[in-house]
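Record pair follows.
FIRST:
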Amino acid sequence: MRPGLCGGEGGWLVRSVAVTNAKGGVGKSTSAINLGAAMAELGRRVLLIDADPSGNAALGFFARGAPGIGLADALLDGLKLEDVAVSTESPGLDVVPPGDRLSLCSEQMGSAQGLGQGREFRIRRLLKGLTGYDVVVVDTSPVLTPLNVAILYAVSEILIPIDPCVAALAGVRALEDLIRTVSEFRMEFTDAGPLSIAGVLVTRADRTLVSKQIESEVRAYFGPLVYDRVVPISVKFREAYARGVPLIHYDRYCAGADAYREAASAYLGDPRVAAKVENEAEAAGDVAA
């Protein structure tokens, strides 16, 4: 079993990735929304788990309010992820909302009395029992909580969105320390192997000199892990979010949509997708002309 895959019933293999960063405001939920939608558009069955009590990822699909039943109920009441998953208007993409009790759930994970023995492996057990999906994308909160640590025990890959600001690498270094510690425990207590970084995505990029300098630092630090195309800052993201629609569907041929499609292609390892994105963009330009 290769890294990034967890075994479901009947031999079904599900690739799982946490979209995470120790720093907030980096476009983490936006990235989870659009990467998940882009992978579904490429023919994968995708489950997006919103593991942040704020529910930002779920609200990106349910603008009028996410369902109150979700991940918390799976953790606290023994439900399966399939029981709390909600279909979206994006074909092939389902969402598990955080649920109204997720903050309580995270607090209990940190308590000696909470959730019983093995609470740090609760998420892992939920994923191992999952069937019917090709990819699981988990949106985490930027705060270091017992729930986030449990998520890092469960998935085998993380994808790091970074906005090119002065504090960009500071949050990443803190995250790297956590990854190193979790990897050691994973290898000692589970068969999951070390936690790996699947990719780094530069988000909220603009044309300022500072933005370009920090992007260069990020590329020098992570090397080939950084995806080629950056996600530009744009008001289109707010417009799409307010309507409960992923940007890649709201404005198919904008630069941000292209960037997320290419990132999804790079994550999935499908070179045909990048060519398709480029051809569609060229065709759209010809029509506009």
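SECOND:
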Amino acid sequence: MPKFALLRDRLLKDGVITPDQIYQPGEPPTGWLELVHDAAYVMAYRQGRLDAKVQRRIGLPWSPALVKRTCTAVGGTILTAKLALEYGLACNTAGGTHHAFPSYGSGFCIFNDLAIATRVLQSQQRARRVLILDLDVHQGDGTAWIFRDDPSVFTFSMHCAENFPARKQRSDLDIPLPTGLTDEAYLRCLARHLPDVLAQVRPDLVLYDAGVDPHRDDRLGKLAMTNTGLYERDRWVLDTCVQAGHPVACVIGGGYGNSMEDLIFRHSLLHRAAVDVFQRRRL
């Protein structure tokens, strides 16, 4: 998928970031993937031996290039989380594969980068309590299932109720939204819940899935947010977390537009908001 490189190029072209702010992740060791995923599934996917039905559920045709891209994106989220702990705020230009379960992928998601990054940081004793804040328009069902019995990880999913997946899992907090919700109502709903969650969980790290598929022009979204609303959402989330003393690692999540140029700009809003917060909070 070209959008990841195009997003990086757009951020550089617009002066949102500079080349020295780009960190290149490596592919994570297999053992890190297996902190979340079944060893047999990891091996079968990496070797291109998945059952045809399992492959169709992912929704992407297998190729060695896709394996590399998938693993690099996971490495990027792990690196982003470590940088967030060091600097207070960091953003990946990919990630947010929240539909992946331990033994299978789903909805264009193969390995669950949010869950893997959480387990890696916990295993390295870099973070104990983690909040996964998922504002993609689709419920983070894989993430919710993985951490369903784990009090050290709080899963918060605010998503369109009448959207994929048809069978929702139970997050620690689910906020189902009505079809067609616009900026003002969306932001009010988020503001009612996030500060209380932060006060309750007191996370060592927030993993923020900033999907842009709530946008009104998204092909798979069913909500009606604008670019302005998405930017205000991201800026408010980041500022609220940072002001309360919680480092934030961001991933771009989903986005499905007819115009690649418009989609890349929507994904860039997260990084523009992050720069604003980083500078104003003097991180």
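COMMENT: The chain has ten helices and six strands.
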